[in-house]
């Protein structure tokens, strides 16, 4: 019966607002392109499509005003665990792209390990002992805690590792940063991918990361034939060439080779005596 409840709940949410289904598809495609979902490099530790769908629905429950009601509210309306009646939520502000950017902003700094994402309550709950009603009996906690809205003792993201959780947050922060950039809002004068199209391509989407083609990386080294001082200069089309080179190397290490990269600072700026 739980499978029927979940299916009816997802269908009810999709019919409640016309932006729900496109937003779910967008997040799932983005996560797949980042290797965070499906059969990506993370193997069994990636997020399932069901987990991503619940994450989007939880996000919509927490908007102001809410796009979707909590499951507990649906139970009150229906008088049973089966959410039969269709809710009439107030429309939330923002079109689809604005909601997508807000999704990345919210989960870029979300404490997945320290909170329980509850669609039943429509809010994040502090972690409590497993014998409490909110946590659910026997709920397996981990780096990513996403509670099934009906089977309260099931963490649908229990397989997600700490590394994948950290990478998910970092990818959300990168995507949120890109959504604030001019490359997201304005068409490229050089015919490059921009806007949502670039966001859904494989690889990094950070501003200044060079071309966003699938594993096609543009390095400004040809213009920097004069040495490292020229590499620190400004390219003809704007931007910092050294920063673009660093972004390309970071992309290879992090997104292709799946290494763990952290942001650091140079002890000194590169110069002629430091070489390339």
UniProtKB/TrEMBL annotation:
GO terms for biological process: RNA 3'-end processing. Coiled coil: none annotated. GO terms for molecular function: metal ion binding; poly(A) RNA polymerase activity. Pfam families: PAP_assoc (PF03828). Residues 99-154 form the PAP-associated domain. It comes from the Eukaryota. One of its GO terms (cellular component) is nuclear speck. Keywords: Magnesium, Metal-binding, Transferase. Signal peptide: none annotated. This is STPAP polymerase. It comes from Heliornis fulica. The lineage of its organism: Eukaryota, Metazoa, Chordata, Craniata, Vertebrata.
């Amino acid at each position: 019966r739980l499978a029927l409840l979940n299916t009816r709940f997802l269908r009810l949410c999709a019919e409640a607002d016309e932006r729900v289904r496109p937003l779910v598809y967008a997040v799932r495609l983005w996560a797949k392109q980042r290797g965070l979902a499906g059969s990506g490099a993370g193997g069994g530790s990636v997020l399932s499509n069901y987990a991503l769908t619940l994450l989007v629905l939880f996000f919509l429950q927490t908007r102001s005003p809410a796009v979707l009601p909590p499951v507990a509210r649906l139970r009150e309306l229906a008088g049973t665990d089966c959410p039969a009646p269709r809710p009439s939520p107030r429309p939330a502000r923002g079109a689809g792209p604005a909601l997508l950017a807000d999704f990345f902003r919210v989960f870029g700094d979300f404490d997945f390990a320290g909170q329980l994402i509850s669609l039943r309550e429509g809010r994040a709950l502090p972690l409590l002992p497993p014998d409490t009603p909110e946590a659910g009996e026997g709920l397996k906690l981990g780096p990513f805690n996403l509670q099934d809205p009906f089977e309260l003792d099931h963490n649908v993201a229990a397989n997600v590792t700490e590394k994948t959780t950290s990478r998910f947050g970092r990818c959300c922060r990168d995507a949120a940063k890109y959504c604030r950039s001019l490359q997201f809002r304005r068409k490229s004068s050089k015919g490059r991918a921009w806007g949502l199209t670039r966001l859904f391509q494989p690889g990094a989407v950070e501003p200044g990361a060079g071309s966003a083609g699938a594993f096609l990386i543009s390095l400004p080294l040809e213009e920097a034939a004069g040495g490292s001082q020229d590499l620190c200069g400004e390219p003809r089309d704007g931007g910092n060439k050294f920063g673009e080179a660093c972004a390309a190397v970071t992309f290879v290490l992090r997104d292709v080779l799946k290494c763990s990269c952290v942001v650091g600072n140079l002890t000194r700026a590169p110069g002629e005596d430091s070489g390339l």
